[in-house]
Structure formats: C-alpha cells, structure tokens
Amino acid sequence: MMKGNLTYIKLLSVFLILLVSCNEDRINENDFGIIQGKVVAEGTNAPLENVRVSTSPVTSTVFSDDKGKFKIENVPVGEYSVGVRLDGYLATFMPATVVTNEAVNVIFEMQISTANNRPPTAPELTKPAENEVLESIEAIFEWSSTDPEEDPITYSLELRNDQNEDVLLFDDITEPTFAYSELLLGAQYFWQVSAKDEYNPAVLSPVGTFSVINAPVENRFLFVRNINGNNVVFSADKDGNEFQLTSENKNSYRPRRSVSANRIAYLQTTGAQVDIYTMKRDGTDKVKVTSNVKPNGFNLNEINIAWPKTSDRIYFPNLDKLYRIRSSGQGLQLVYQTPDGSMISEIAVSENNDLIVLKTNNLDGYDVSIFTIRFNGTVIDTLISGLPGAASGLDLSVTNGKIIYSYDTSGFQSSDYRRLDSKIFMYDINTGEPPVVISAEKPNGTNDLEPIFAPNEAFVIFTNTSNDGISQKDVYTLEIGENETRELLYSNAFMPDWE
Fold this sequence. Notes:
This protein is mainly beta. The chain folds into 3 domains: 32-110, Immunoglobulin-like (Sandwich), CATH 2.60.40; 124-212, Immunoglobulin-like (Sandwich); 221-498, TolB, C-terminal domain (Neuraminidase, 6 Propeller). Helix content is 5%, strand content 48%. The chain is built from 1 helix and 39 strands. The strands form 10 sheets. Strands 9, 11, 12, 14, 15 and 16 form a 6-stranded mixed sheet that branches. The chain has a 4-stranded antiparallel sheet with strand order 3-2-5-6, with no helix packed on it. A 4-stranded antiparallel sheet has the order 19-18-17-39, with no helix packed on it. The radius of gyration is 40 Å and the shape is elongated. 33% of the residues are buried.
C-alpha cells in the first residue's frame, strides 16, 4: 500500500512540473502593443477617410477617421505587414514590429489608381476652319476635347508652314483655345493639337490646314473695330477689302500712318495705362515706343497722337504737357505745358511750317479751347476758347490754312461724356472768320465725330453714330461743299485715318 502511494506522489510531482513549464511558455497578459498611424494622399498629403487597415498575420481590421488616423489595439507582439485599401487608390503595405506596451507609428501615402483611367478624347479642331484663308496675321485657334473621368487636360499645339522649316510648339495650354499673332503673310499653315491628362499618354488631333492672305498693297485706309470688348486696328483698300492688323486680345486704337516711314503708329492699353506702338503696314514688326512717360489725358479713349507725314517724331499728350518722341523710342522732348493746368487732348502737326494745333479741355472734357503754337512752345494764336460741350477730332490741312474738328452744338455736358448733336466744323486760320459747319445735313439724332482731311482735301473722312452712345459706329466720307454728299465707307468702324 505504501508503494502505491509513493508511485502516485511521483506521478503528481511530474504533472505539476509539466504544468509549471507550460505556463512559462504562455504569453503574458502584458505582451501586447498598438499599431497606429495616418493615411494621406501622395503628393497632396490630404488625409484619407474610411481607409480599410488590416494586418498580416491577421489581428483586427479598422478604418481611418476624417483626419486619416487609425489605431489597432491589443496586437500581440511580433512582426506584421500592415496594409491599407481604398477604392480608387493602389493598395499599400508597410512593415511594423510590435513590442510590449508600445505604440508603433506607420504613415501611408496612397497613390491614385490609374488602372482604369481613360485618356481624353482626340481634340477636334474647330477654328480656323479647314482650308480657311485668314485676313490677318493673327490666328485664334480653338478645339474641343473631353476627359471621361473629368481629369484636367493639358494641351500642346504644333504649328508649321510651307515658307520655312520652323516648327513652333506651344506647351502647357490649359484651355482649348490659343492666340498667335505672328503669322507669315501668304503662307499655308499646318497645325495639330495633343491632349493629355495626368495619367495617360497624349492623344493627337488630325492635322488642320489654313492659309494667310498675301500682304495688302494699297491699303491706305485705317480704322478701328471693336471685337469682343477690345479695339482692333484694320486697314482697307478703296474697294473695301479689309485686313486685320492688331490682335483681338489687345486693346489697340487711334492708328496714324507715316508716309515717309511707311509705318503705322497706334495706342495700346495695358491695364489702366496706354503706350504708343508702331508696326509695318502689314501689321508685322510691332515695336513699343514709349516707356516712362506715356500718353495720358482726361479720358484715354478721347486723346489722339500725331505723326507728321515726313517726320520721324510722334507727338502725344500727357495731361497738361505735350511731348514728342522718335519712332525708335529715343529723344523724348517736352514741347509745351499749359499754364492753367488744362488737359491737352488732341494734336495736329505740320513740321514743314513750324506749326502745332492743340485742343485742350478741363478734367471733364469741357471748356474747350483750340490754339496754335510753334515747336519751341510759343503760343501763336487762340482760335477758339471756352466752348461748352464736347469737341473731338482735330486735323490740319496740307496748306496749314484750315483745321477741322467736331463739336456738340447742343452744349450738353454729362459725367459720361455723351454728345447729342456733334457736327463737323471748318476753321480758316488765315482769315480768322467764325468756323463753318460742313455737316449741317447729318441725320437727326446722330453725331459726326473724329473728322480728318482726305489726302486731296476735297473730302473729310469721319465717324457717324447714334447719339445714344451705345449704337454701332460707321465710317463715312463727306464731300466738302454745298451738296454735303456723304458716302458709307466701312460699317462697324470708327477712328479713321486716310493717308
């Protein structure tokens, strides 16, 4: 009996030893850690919400909050691969080592998945139309393309011509339109547009073709036309064939051609400032003339410049001062300054007779005076003084004996400079007799504005428009004499010049 009990006690001792040994191999209740971190979009670092976060080996699955943060608690110590998944993004994995009672931080930057992203449609060329002949050295290119996922599209435009081997490439265009204003006259052009999104290779349009007309030869008329809110300078011949000289994307006006220089001077605005530019008669070789001292006046739309036919000097007003500058931009000179602070608005110059005619007014454009000075600034004579109402347009005859101008005979004055009954007047400098109306038979309710002499001085060329201030303007000629025969030259046109 004693022997049996001894055997039992030995077996119980072995069992207890094994039991203690097994307990030493079990994980202690404190052998756990935490996996935490944040999920953001690659490139922007924007937090990503509702991202599925899991581990391998498998523990718990959690989702990121609106700040992109997540936390997996009670993770047994050990080595893990942590993965994140979100529709539209590539699954991403990071290693993590969990230690006792510690939190391991893991930051994920997820890439947008492009596996199913489709490229934009091939651009469809719409403007210029196929085989269109442009009457300008500027082309406005337009096309259309869409992206199935509405991803932003970036375009490139390639432009070639049949006159040389130049290949012009314009990259990083973000809108389906582009303007180019240095086309070659008489050339045929070939153009192609590529479109691409952020994820796919570029797709190409078909090749489009257009051409540019040959250089105008006898375009002696100049005028301005408003296109999409900008003033644009045109030239035209006696048959009415028109040619666009300046860009639709810039505000250009008051063209004046120099016969000797065979170039055109004009005003062009940049914001609230205006500069003088010159260009060849075909619209090429545009050169900025003014820099620090710029044309200015009570109203930038109501001032003019003068470029005498045989001179290299361009005259322009700057508030109460008159300047002249060479067409190269050199040799700026102050010619005259009004003693009473009145604004110089319009100028007519005869360099072969030491004569300048000036029109001045107050800050509102009224209280008009017209007088003559010499090149050294000496006042010769006051022709007209203290007129109420508005006057516009000023020109000097080739004999230097007569001037023409437009004056609102109603004497109306308003903050918007509206004119009610403007007629063209001629003043004889030699006789000093009262000015004579030469457009007395103009249509009622209209204004005759901006008159200049025709080269033969048998006619004047001018603008006529309704006195409502918003209607279309047209350019006419008027024979000087008793018949007052007027003829429409150009529709939707104003600020004429004829050299």
